[in-house]
Amino acid sequence: MDNDTAQTFSILLIAVLLGWVFLSVSLLWTAPAGAPWLPTSRKLVRRMLALANVQPGEVVYDLGSGDGRVLFIAAREFGARAVGIELDPLRWAWTRMWIALLGLQGQVRVIRGNFFTQDVGEADVVTLYLLQKTNNRLRRKLWQELHPGARIVSSVFLFPGMEPMRIDKKAHLFLYEVKMPCQSQAEQPSKSPG
Ligand SMILES: C[S@@+](CC[C@H](N)C(=O)[O-])C[C@H]1O[C@@H](n2cnc3c(N)ncnc32)[C@H](O)[C@@H]1O
After folding, report:
1. Residue 160 belongs to what domain range?
2. Do 11 and 48 share a structural domain?
3. If you average pLDDT over residues 106-114, what whole number do you get?
4. What lines the ligand 1 site, CB under 6 Å?
5. What is the pTM of this model?
6. CB 61 within 8 A of CB 126
């Protein structure tokens, strides 16, 4: 290998390595804050929203909204008003760009922030695809802020101590309904003592 070829090869290798590092960091850096970025397939998103029986005009919140796919499907196919909360500025900006391109400003919005500190009380339906430890941390907040009748669909991960209203075993989806305001069901005795 001559010097020029070796130099070109080294530059290419460094570019690939830098690209790989950038991609990994951008996918994974939010993991400690709640979850890494792993998008739900659009087919599964439709299944989540159908499981929650989302109706036109209802407000759907996606906690950790990634590239916004849940928001766009909720708005365009279910007629919902959709709100995303996303920590990552790139994914937030990407979603904002698509809201503008699709002309959905009146129906979809995305908040750049941390879902642990944002109020979700106006949601009729909350969707999540996070991690088990994140669901554990969110449980009290959701059951305190959401109104009775609000539904929560979690992909893969459960809310320990809470009784799912329906389970889609094949798709690993869990549907919960908030029954009482300002109180966690987990803090209620689920069965009368024997
Ligand atoms: C597994 S992805 C799910 C993305 C999207 N909901 C979907 O189903 O395609 C989790 C998303 O949550 C975001 N996230 C993680 N922790 C967060 C936090 N504390 N506040 C807001 N977003 C967060 C990540 O940046 C990532 O985009």
Report:
1. 42-187
2. no
3. 98
4. 30, 33-35, 37-40, 62, 64-66, 69-70, 85-88, 91, 114-116, 129-130
5. 0.88
6. yes
